[in-house]
Amino acid sequence: MRQGEFRRSLERSWHMAQEQVRIFDTTLRDGEQAPGFSLRPAEKIQLARQLDALGVDVIEAGYPIASSAEADAVRRIATEIRRPIIACLARCHPADLERAAWAIEPAAQGRIHTFIATSDLHLQAKLRISREQCLEAAVDGVRFARRHTSDVQFSAEDATRSDIDFLCRVVEAVIKAGATTINLPDTVGYSTPDETLEFFTLIRTRVPNADKVVFSTHCHDDLGLAVANSLAAVQGGARQVECTINGIGERAGNAALEEVVMAFNVRPDRIPYSTSVVTKLLYPSSEMLTKLTGQPVQVNKAIVGRNAFAHEAGIHQDGVLKDRRTYEIMSAADVGAPWNPLVLGKHSGRHAVQKRCAALGFAFEGDELIGIYRALMVIADDRKTIEDADIIKVVRSMRPELVAVGEAADAAEVPAHPVAAMHESGYGHGV
Q: What pLDDT, on the 0 to 100 scale, is given for residue 386?
């Protein structure tokens, strides 16, 4: 069998072997709790529509007990958004659960997500209750929720720092009480991927009724391991990943939805799982969130950062111009981002300068190209990046007749506005 045929055969086998992983988006709940990310009800509705289009399986619309406006927003989302499951959060407390039940009542598919901490640290320092009281509250909360919906998710807050024997008792009991999804969050981002894999494997092995539910992972990014831990949890048997657009959330944030999804998409050989997410809407969804919150994305953010598909180094630019696969493991088009890869700066090479000149209608080679390149590098040393206006100015100083002819011949050959690829942002998102 030829190499190309073997590769295609292998890819087909990967596809056939892939299991579906649910994407539980909590941008509107955990994400919105982060300082500076608060959304007004109309903005939550707008983003919920985008999440629906994105194809997420579950939208956690909010925390109804927090305020009347929050409860109303969740109910509006439950009324309007019909395809995905609409979930909302509630403590294992009757008032929370009653408010949650009211908020999701209009949903085509409504879920109550109830939780209580299970680690001794939280039980003693925060809740000031015993393990037995915790167990009783968890069971009562799930039973209460089941009277209002058949879809109940239970979360053991701070699960990864809980005593494993006690945690198994709680998980077994809430499954018996009617929970259909069990979330074991790494609430403070403390775990490592090897621990997470072992943790989920152990829980699923030790809890006798574990096969009756879907296990979920919710990882925070305090050590920068949220995505890695989420992927490890999936390898340990979790089939739901809780995540947010741009990785926003409490403290350092949550696992970034776009990173989790594209990890599955790019590496099916190592992580053979699929999602229902429409990847071409990842970048537009990220962009919408930044506009609604006014909070930028870090420039080097994976998948959606403004430099994610931009190149300044000359060696990289030369490789990308010849074959983008040399330095890009995915296409910008795959995630719906513009592909404007050549950012001209002091690290750029002559090939990139020549390419940009050609786009502006100027053809240079040999000594002329070297002269233009050197002049532009002087500008780059002083101002970091080079704009189209800088190129036109340098060309005018060396060959004024070419600029005059180029400007007069066809306005389309000389863009009236600088091309986004020339700006330090690579493209406008996240500024």
A: 75
The answer to whether residue 302 sits within a structural domain is: no
Residue 156 sits in a domain of what CATH number?
Answer: 3.20.20.70
Q: Which domain holds residue 345?
A: 314-422
pLDDT digits (tens, 9 = 90+) for 181-233: 999 999 999 999 999 999 999 999 999 999 999 999 999 999 999 999 999 99
Residue 7 lies in a domain: no
Please tell me the pTM assigned to this model: 0.82
Per-residue pLDDT at 118 exceeds 90? yes
Q: 237 and 289 share a domain? A: yes
Residue 14's pLDDT is 47
| Location of structure tokens 């060959």 | 399
Regarding whether 208 and 330 lie in a shared domain, the answer is no
Summarised one tens digit per residue, pLDDT across range 1-35 is: 455 555 555 455 444 457 999 999 999 999 999 99
Does 319 share its domain with 237? no
Same domain, 120 and 180: yes
d(CA 427, CA 431): 9
Domain count, the chain: 2
